[in-house]
User: Fold Class I SAM-dependent methyltransferase from Winogradskyella rapida.
Amino acid sequence: MSDWTNYFEVNKATWNKKVNIHAKSDFYNLEAFKDGESSLKPYELNALGDVEGKSLLHLQCHFGQDTLSWSRMGAKCVGVDLSETGIELARSLNAELQQDAKFVCCNVLDTSAHISETFDVVFTSYGVIGWLPDLKPWAKMISERLKPGGTFYMVEFHPIVWMFEEVNGRMEMNYPYSQEQVIYEEYKGTYADKTSEMISKEYGWNHSLSSVVNALIEAGLKIESFKEYDETPYDIFPDLVPNASGMYRAKSPLFPFIFEIKARK
Assistant:
């Protein structure tokens, strides 16, 4: 992991800066969340169902909205994130909302060094695995943190989405479907506030679907379901059209926007 240290440090610095911007953004709508609105989307709610009384580990939790949404539903939650600023805000929200979630600041690949307990559910969602250079240690850690019979669930943007780059308001296919080489980006603003003057400096990796699935299988997990959808809960491309359920679709769908995997130990 030493070869990746600089990448992680740069990413952590960027995420530390993002937290305060995101907490004030309409995208995260923190005041509505404090008033009781859930941040969870239909995919994960339908997949995991009733979590009352279940222990749940949320990987790469940012400042904890999803973690706390699961906590409000009765799960016993632990959230993990790389950003100290994110974890600090998550802990503050946990206290303010009188929940009993716990939050741990660490690199997600090091989770087992910081958390020894095992969980009924391990959960991760939307824009997470692209920050990881290798999915094998990630999957190994997930297996370590699951109880026998426990469920791993992820919902994530489809790797085809990451092949595109916005150039002058248009999406161009500029990146390989899967590549081991790191991708560096530097740009003004964030996905939650494109008008921000913040400079985002980010290292990321593109992972194929087969690399995700095979990493989980090699870690000893049994894939129970795999699904792809040509809609997304986020307005991630120009000219997407919202449908009646609040999802966004292309006018002429050509490829999936998200995928979900449910696996069991």
Remarks:
- Residues 5-23 form the longest helix (19 residues).
- Helices lie at 5-23, 30-34, 42-48, 65-72, 84-96, 111-114, 135-145, 209-218.
- The chain has one domain: 2-158+207-264.
